[in-house]
Amino acid sequence: MNLDVLLVVFAGLFGLLVGSFSNVLIWRLPRGENIAFPPSHCPHCDHGLSPRDLVPLFSWLSLGGKCRYCRAPIKTRYPIVEALTGLGYAAIALLFPLTLYGAGSLGLMVLFTLLLVGSAIDLDTYTLPDELTLPGVALGLLFGFFNGRNGVEGLPDLAGAVNGALLGAGLLVAINQFGSWVLRRFRERQYPEFPIGFQQISLGLLAGAWLGPWWGAGVGVLSAAVNGISRRVVRVPELLTLGGLLLSVVVGSAGGGPGLILMVQGSLAAAGGVSLVAGVYWWIKHRRGAANDSTGDGAEDHYDASAMGFGDVKLAAVIGAFLGWERLLVALLVAVFAGAIIGVVQLARKQENRVKFGPFLAFGALVALIWGAGIVAGYRGMLGL
């Protein structure tokens, strides 16, 4: 048995162990529980589990899918998550050999776990916890640093990871901004966030188109600072920001060529930067138990119509950080296509048509991971690039 095959086997076994921990994350993160304490216990009888109860897959099979102590059924999701993680890690080790990709291969395993855990939580709660997505972005940047340092080909370096994270968040939040504007029939937001939120993101979209990503993000953050200093929401009309962006794109398209492309990239990256700053701010705010602070310009428990959950925005940033912006686009296209198919099926069956987009993003990311490089190369070949 050569080294690469041995590492594939070890990766699969390691994945089974990580899958067991993933089940802990899936259960505890949405409930705000500590992921380390108390130790694993049965959710029905609260009896602590011994090491023989925690062997991935085999414990569930030997117990017949029931708790050893109260005989309550154990969800089949537990062995499924463990098996998927084991298979996923083995597949990554096979397609991206550790001897060749090093830390890059480990990073893809981390991404796989983030996608699987996030999808399971989203299916249960329609949420993607900040405790998963925001550290996930940081991890993507960290592995990008190691990719660049070790000269790993096919995976983004630090600059590529930063660009991917910003464009990932920016693309999804731009879709949300314009979709929400349409849902409100182009009316202004009634409940703007204080001090930073969607108004500052829209401002970043406009400023980034003309000033570039960093200055554009700075304008959005400056607007939040003005709110903080004035202790109220200083409104930034969407007719000015989103409408101005549409006008800017029309003006930019008259020149065509790289100018328009740079304008769009700057706009999306700036909005992505403001989105991540806002995400970190509100994560810290919620953790401090101050999530219901008054905005000074709206009701505390009311929200404007939204086209997409903000957790999806941060998950797109995670995918972009680990895979780069080109594979991110592939992931998004696959996610939209798959989501549309499921949506049509739900309508045909007259089922609830509330789409949980996180799992589709995760599926798209896996497709992009495996086949994204070939898809991008084929597209470039068609354009003669």
From TrEMBL:
It is a multi-pass membrane protein. Residues 109-224, 235-344 form the Prepilin type IV endopeptidase peptidase domain. InterPro entries: Prepilin_IV_endopep_pep (IPR000045), Prepilin_pept_A24_N (IPR010627), Prepilin_peptidase/N-MTase (IPR050882). Its EC number is 2.1.1.-, 3.4.23.43. PANTHER family: PREPILIN LEADER PEPTIDASE_N-METHYLTRANSFERASE-RELATED, TYPE 4 PREPILIN-LIKE PROTEINS LEADER PEPTIDE-PROCESSING ENZYME. Belongs to the peptidase A24 family. GO terms for cellular component: plasma membrane. It comes from the Bacteria. It is found in: Cell membrane. Residues 13-95 form the Prepilin peptidase A24 N-terminal domain. One of its GO terms (biological process) is signal peptide processing. This is Prepilin peptidase. The chain crosses the membrane at residues 6-27, 87-112, 132-148, 160-183, 203-227, 239-256, 262-284, 329-348, 360-379. Pfam families: A24_N_bact, Peptidase_A24.
